[in-house]
Fold this sequence. Notes:
By secondary structure, the protein is an alpha+beta fold.
Amino acid sequence: xxxxxxxxxEPLYRHQxxxxxxxxxxxxxxxxxxxxxxxxAARTEFMREQITSYKSIEDEGFILPVVECxxxxxxxxxxxxxxxxxxxxLDVKAVSCRFNYxxxxxxxxxxxxxxxxxxxxxxxxxxxxxxxxxxMERLQKNSVKP
Length: 146
């Protein structure tokens, strides 16, 4: 079973986004599922900066689908809030990896959301696979638990 710890560790990547009207409900509160999109945006930029782009991974014949996710809602983000999504790579295994996230409202520093996603490594046929050594080395270098 995957550890449920939501702690954040270096190296920590910070991604900013502003809540757009289309991400909110009629009350101006971010719709709950959109936090997973914010996680994805931050994870994508973390990967691009620290490891390699998802496009490069796909070009090599691999996909990293989400196979598990958890979101802990502590407070709501609102329309026009500027958010900071912190991302860290917690764990890298032979055919999976886990990212932790924390979403903070920049204006007051309040932690709104904490969560994680677990990703399997699969080839184009959907079978579990191992990433090439260079990508795996970069992942391990940037994770807390290599």
